[in-house]
Write a structure and sequence with these properties.
six-stranded mixed β-sheet; 42% helix; 8 helices; Rossmann fold; 257 residues
Length: 257
Amino acid sequence: MIRFERYVAIGDSSTEGLIDPDGQGGFRGWATRLAEHLARAQGRLLYANLGVRGKRTRQIRREQVPAALAMHPDLVTLFSGTNDVLTRRFDAEELGRDVEAMHRELIASGAAILTFTLPDLTPFMPLGRLIAFRIRALNDTLRAVARTTGATLVDFAAHPVASDARLWNEDRLHANALGHERIAAALAHALGIPGTDPSWNDPLPVTEAPRAGAWLRRELRWTRHHLAPWIWRHARGRSSGDCVLPNRPTLAPVDLS
């Protein structure tokens, strides 16, 4: 295993940790869970998390990469694209140029890059079919960039378990605590951290499909509490990340107590 001393996470709400409560009014998330894996294996680790909900790839490149470079990390996790996919205009080639530029700048500074693809959302979000072609384009782009730059990529889209609704929050765009745990375990295994294994990919126990009535109530509840507010917010040009600051903007030791 390669030892890392300074880990910086950059990205959007997934990196920020939504929706994985830390019990203290904030979020834990896969990035913090990964930092804890590393700290336990190594004895210590400096960690910063610059992820902010609602950020698109161009914003991450402009706002977070310079801040990350200033911390001289030797490990950077970078995931972006979900918010790009949800905009009116999605250009996979433009996104790819931004992602590749970030990879190259960070790698040139001495950082290893760890990234991943977005799973198929359609098994638990029927409306996901409307953007499924965009998600495929996003994932193809992320794979191509990783091959070009040499970044380590975990291809969650190739693993059916990642599309299990039980790993996702009721908003269907963010992982729940179990989902964040699985993401962190997959990334830790990709880094070769001692004590990790491929069990993150094990399927969850088979359960009975919901009855039609329960399914309909669930879809109506999701539309009312999540889809409609999202449409209204974006119609007004608002972002969930407006006025939100990174929750861990500077490097600090990981607390394992």
